[in-house]
């Protein structure tokens, strides 16, 4: 929760950055290309990036650093974006969604990273505006996720240079959604480790790890459930921005989100199972501890009573003066101990 | 449950205040504005507030204090409101909903406050009647939530003065829904504190706090689930009262309720997880306690038996008269103790 | 389950009373009214109640006591009711539902009562046939629930005398559904008591009470879920029996059932939470008990061992003859006890 | 699971009996009737039963014993039934369903029986083919369930002789579905016994019984859920086989399946509750046991230590020679015991 | 998770095998048949298999070994398959699905095998392209699952030679889906063994087996849920590839997937129940252990105290010198022991 409450009472659509500043200098990159050429520019203010070159050139404007609100405002006014969209771009706790504004599509979703050492995952909000002949992406910081795509653009490999701006938008979404697979694979490994550790011998550390996994799965699901809806929304978008050719790719994207969702659901159920297994295992261990105590105590407590009896100082205790008294008592106690052991074995406690 | 049963058997639509009286004096405020001017009035009886000025002037009638039923009746007869609506306004345990009466929309929802010291949250019912050129709001008391909006009206900032009464209605709803974010953020902080405390060392206080959090999440969900439906209902409202321009803002509002609902669901799952973690942790602690007892008892109980043996008063106990008897027994017992410790270490109890 | 199996193999639509006989004498009351006058009759056989007076007079036939099957048969043949409806009327374990037979609506639902002393709630089946100009209600017994409505009819207060038979039907349903609020309020109070008791100190009685509450909530939900569907079915009923004016009231009724359902769901979740809290609390108490035992035992068992050592009767035990031997051992034991206490404090067991 | 895997790799529609043989001799009964007369025949081979008499005579062919596959094949070829239907008839682990083949409806469902002594329930598959002027029923064995219906046919009571073959089909379904109520009532009684036993004192037998109930409820639900869908499918069947008159009865049938489903759901929740109650109760009992141990042990362990002290054989122990030493120690121990008891009472352990 | 992340950043539709190599030599088999003849070929490169013979001959191309990507590429270019389909074929962690490309249907699903010794199940991805006059199947390896079908093709039994390529596609799917029944039957047997073992006496091994079953059920469900959707998708496929005759068989296939899904759901609930039963049983056993300890300890601890008293060495202890002192104390202790036993019996601990 990034202090969404601070905006309470303000005019809807007012531009205020709600989130964490992730880099010092905001940067605006413009890549314009046709099937023949690619040109790249870098600006510090978004104003300088306009106007875009006309068709058939396609422009990708990559706005990095949301704390620089004038950049977002400039893009908004240059392209005629609705104020509520601009507000959403600046508000980094958006729910993934797709809004169809006729002339352009507004897509917002989260990119994921997983820090395998700290067992924590981070998320970064990506907003996309997909219009005729241009795509604008807004990011909190540059984590290098778009580099392979940029390479493909520069090299002219694949369809990316020959298809339209809708395909570029799809390609950006594809990169972000692929980042989930990476995170899920790492979580899957931790899950397997936990399972092995639990079967071996369960201790408190495993409990905390399983707990953290489940918490992460719950939290991930919160991101992925609306993501699924959002991509499904892209499929249904009536806006003409997405051509039929790209719809096939969007369907593929939707399959990916389904797979991600399935995996998260499975993780959730698995970790819940592990927690139950832990509880049962730790119950088992307690029973084992108790059995040990009970066996030792129930054998020796009666014996200790017997030796106590013959430790009494009564003047008149005939057994004490019998010659075989001591050895008789030792024998008696041995017999009692054996009876007890036999009883425990019959009860499957040994 | 505020004694809804007291109304059983009465004519539906009969006006009886069901709730808690939150302030002494009922007040009716009327704010009338166009894009050029704003005029504010304050009355003690709703009757004096009528008639409203005609278009293009827009009137916001803010009725504070529901225990003064004649005020509600006066508004109802002046504006031709259905008796069931008036009954619902007075009944403060309404489920959030939107009813479309063609000429006007009736919206009822709950504003939230969170008392961070007592860890309790309060709710206040807000009813809105959104008609052509006017909005009437009914509140149980004045908690200052609408002050920033009033400021914006007076200052003429943003769209509020230039858009119609539907936008005013939306703005009022927006203020109320934003109050949920504030409450959720505070709950989130308590949740994090609990989590930390549980991982540190779990005690009874944390249990109660987690329990209370979960109870609150369950209870909040009860408010937010129908809220979501209500705002979705606003989107689908066929009444012409809401213009297309405002529908975009309603969609934004709907996104907010989705976000609120997601967060509450996450809190519910998190607190359920915390309860499980608590159970597991407390099980762990019990095992630890039991292990300590078992180790001490299983070492010393057999030893105590041995010393008991040589405390017996039999006349014929040869060992007692051996010179090294005492030290031999001491050594034997030391050996037994070491065996036991080795056994416990092998079992990972130490 | 009231022996529904006894009807197996019989012709569908055969009239057999399945239920418990709640009163000795079956009674049939007929109230006929227009906006000008009200006339009341009481018969012991339903046959005498026909024919009804013609429009605009509206007739309410209140058939009390279902064990008198000829009465039901007489109503059925006089008004042309489908045999399956008559069978359902006599079968007191119906699921709440609305069946639209074109000429008339058949509504069946349960009225609730709560015995606050025995903490048990009872239910009574009410069947309504709503036709043009008449309403027939069938009840197992007379619990006085319809008295306030009768009063309103006699006094001519409210809309009841001026609206049609559909409004009368609605008014009867409203009375029955309001009875749920009463039950829910009483359950809510028991719930609060339980919660307080659990936080104070949990004992077996509270467990049973919480269990019973949850069982009641599960069982209530079974009644209310189809009730909700039934009232929604009334809203969608295509039969012309319900006029547009009354539909607004039906919508209000639907809101009530939603509120009832929400409350029951909340109760269910709350009681489930309470059961978990109970389990955790009782776990806590066990740990506390175990800790006490462990502390006492681990302090005194080693000490008892030591005194046992010096109780041995070996001839050669040098310490026994040292002058300060006794006091030295006492001091040693004091030291051990203090070490133990320090250890327990460090482990937060004290 | 009756070895459905054995059919893997075979041509779909190949006729192989998958199930358990329940009777030695397969029998085919043919009952042909009009409103005026009834004629009954019994054959050992289905071939002899054809052709059916023409309209208005209605024929019910009751094929008992599925292991005699030629009978099924003969029916199939004589009436032109699809091979997949014949395969399904022979495969006794079908899911309840309705398939509409235009000329005829294929309905498959399970009849239930409950062995109240062994607390086990059995199921038998019934397949129905409902066509114009005929109904064919296929059963694994004859459990007498259809006897009352046969009686009604012979006696000409009710509608059965005057309505068409669709009503006959409905009547057969009605008999089967009524068998569920019988089973549910018996389960309900077991459930109540368990509840009482649990509240009294919970032991292992009750646990197993509750477990078995819950398992049965889970398993029953597996049958009833698709049954509900199947009957709903009958309601929606576009085939003209079911006339409008019979649709009213089908709706009644649907109500019955809803009631059955509700009851099973309630049983499931109740048994889950009972398991939780059992767990809590058994926890309680353990705490009680532990408290007893703790009280006894914490009172006597310190006292035993004290008497151990004065059992030591030190030469120099001044207290031993005081005249009132013995009685002083007795008094001291009494005092300690009382302090302990007071402490336990304050902690509500006594 | 088979390293789906490695594809991040690559052009969508690029051909890279993601999975495990299951055999050394990739093989391509071509079976071409009409109702009159069957011809079989085997190639090592897919290129050699083209072109297919023209209608009415039907060709089944069985591509075994996905690591040989040129084969897949060759098929793709020869038949004009969309690049995304080829990518999906090579990616062995697909979700079961059906994609309708107009000219052909792309179906992907998992075949299951169960290793009953290791209690593990394996899955193999099968991709099918069903077009006019041909079916191409892509498999990771050859597990002999299609042998019976091949036999039927060669022998000309059943419909397979007379129906079109759509029926061949259906027959392949049918084989794969039947493999689930086999796995489920084996799981069912393990489940029954576990249940018996749990009721007998629960130990750690059973716990692990139940855990593994539940994990498998969760994991299976992940496969079967989308399988169900996929087969339902086949039913709705608007492509003309599937003729009306085959649709009846697809409906049968859908019934099978429903039955599989029901069974898995039941297994899930059953194993969850078994886990709960285990927990309760192990709780019971702990209580039994504790009771034994408590009974022994509470009987002997007080007695040991008494004998300790008379083991004290006070000079002045009058009882010691009474003639009947020793026997009196023995009698007293016997009495105390009997009182204790009576008390335990009254509490139902014995």
Description:
Five copies of one chain form a homopentamer. Chain A has seven helices and seven strands, in the order βββααββββααααα. Chain A is α+β, with helices and mostly antiparallel strands and 350 residues long. Chain A has two domains: 4-280, Beta Polymerase, domain 2, CATH 3.30.460; 285-346, Magnesium transport protein CorA, transmembrane region (Methane Monooxygenase Hydroxylase, Chain G, domain 1). Chain A has a seven-stranded mixed beta sheet with strand order 2-1-3-7-6-5-4. In chain A, strand 4 and strand 5 (105-115) form a beta hairpin. In chain A, helix 4 runs parallel beside helix 6 and helix 5 runs antiparallel to helix 6. The model of chain A has no long low-confidence stretch (mean pLDDT 86). Chains in contact: A-B, A-E, B-C, C-D, D-E.
């Amino acid at each position: 929760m990034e202090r969404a409450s601070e905006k309470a009472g303000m005019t809807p659509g007012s531009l205020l950055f709600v989130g964490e500043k992730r880099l010092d200098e905001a940067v605006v990159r413009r890549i314009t290309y046709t099937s023949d050429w690619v040109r790249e520019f870098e600006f510090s203010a978004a104003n300088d990036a306009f106007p875009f070159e006309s068709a058939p050139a396609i422009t990708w404007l990559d706005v990095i650093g949301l704390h620089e609100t004038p950049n977002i405002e400039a893009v908004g006014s240059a392209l005629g974006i609705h104020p509520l969209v601009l507000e959403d771009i600046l508000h980094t706790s958006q729910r993934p969604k797709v809004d169809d504004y006729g002339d352009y599509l507004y897509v917002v979703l989260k990119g994921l990273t997983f820090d395998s050492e700290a067992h924590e995952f981070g998320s970064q909000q990506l907003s996309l505006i997909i219009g005729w002949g241009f795509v604008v992406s807004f990011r909190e910081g540059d984590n290098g996720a778009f580099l392979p795509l940029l390479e493909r653009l520069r090299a002219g490999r694949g369809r990316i240079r020959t298809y339209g701006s809708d395909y570029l938008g799809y390609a950006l979404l594809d990169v972000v959604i692929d980042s989930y697979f990476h995170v899920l694979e790492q979580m899957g490994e931790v899950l397997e480790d936990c399972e092995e550790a639990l079967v071996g011998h369960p201790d408190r550390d495993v409990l905390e790890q399983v707990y953290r996994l489940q918490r992460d799965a719950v939290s991930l699901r919160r991101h992925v459930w609306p993501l699924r809806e959002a991509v499904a929304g892209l499929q249904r978008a009536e806006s003409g921005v997405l051509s039929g050719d790209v719809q096939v790719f969007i369907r593929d994207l939707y399959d990916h989100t389904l797979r991600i969702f399935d995996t998260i659901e499975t993780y959730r159920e698995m970790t819940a199972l592990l927690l139950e297994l832990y509880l049962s295992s730790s119950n088992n261990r307690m029973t084992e501890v108790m059995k040990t105590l009970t066996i030792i105590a129930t054998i020796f407590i009666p014996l200790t009573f017997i030796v106590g009896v013959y430790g009494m100082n009564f003047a008149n205790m005939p057994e004490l003066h019998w010659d075989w008294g001591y050895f008789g008592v030792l024998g008696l106690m041995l017999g009692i101990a054996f009876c007890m052991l036999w009883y425990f074995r019959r009860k499957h406690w040994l």
